[in-house]
Amino acid sequence: MKKLFSALAAASLISAPALAQNQPSPVPVTEQQMAIYFTMGAINVCSLNKQKVPVKVAMQASLDEILTTFYNIHGGTVNGKKIEIAQMQEITLANVLLRINDFCIKELPQDDQEKIKKDLSMYQAALQKK
Fold first, then answer.
1. pTM of the full predicted structure?
2. Is residue 13 part of a domain?
């Protein structure tokens, strides 16, 4: 499934595992913490958009922040289960896009609105097939 920001998600964790070296023992993340991280990511995109930062750039920054935190602080685990990078990238992307849709979709440039809505439709269709 191709998504607007899939390439961004793929690029966002290139250095994250390397940064985890020399860190204190990771504490697994809770679902509540992840929800907070996803919300913060969407708020970042919305806020940066108001400052005329392109959505693609804002999204990259948000994905980097969330994924780096997840792997460096939480060791890449949710409720004791290790999540592979590619899976976490997709989870993060989908959840941030859902929140952007709720928070500020109408404030984004029209082409970004359309791409986000298309990506969300594809994501929802994939969930229904499972």
1. 0.81
2. no
When pLDDT is averaged across residues 27-41 and rounded to a whole number, the result is 94
State both tokens at 22.
Answer: 């020399």
Total structural domains within the chain: 1
Q: Which residue has the higher pLDDT, 9 or 67?
A: 67
Residues 58 and 51: their CA atoms lie apart, in Å, by 10
Q: Averaged over 113-127, what is the pLDDT?
A: 91
Mean pLDDT of 53-60: 96
Does residue 102 fall inside a structural domain? yes
pLDDT at 21: 54
Rg (CA), the chain: 15
The packing angle between helices 85-103 and 110-129, to 10°, is 130
Q: Calculate the alpha carbon distances from 107 to 40, 45, 53, 63 in Å.
A: 17, 11, 13, 20
| Residue 96: inside a domain | yes
Q: What is the DSSP string of 7-54?
A: HHHHHTTSSHHHHTTTPPPP-PBPHHHHHHHHHHHHHHHHHHHHTT--
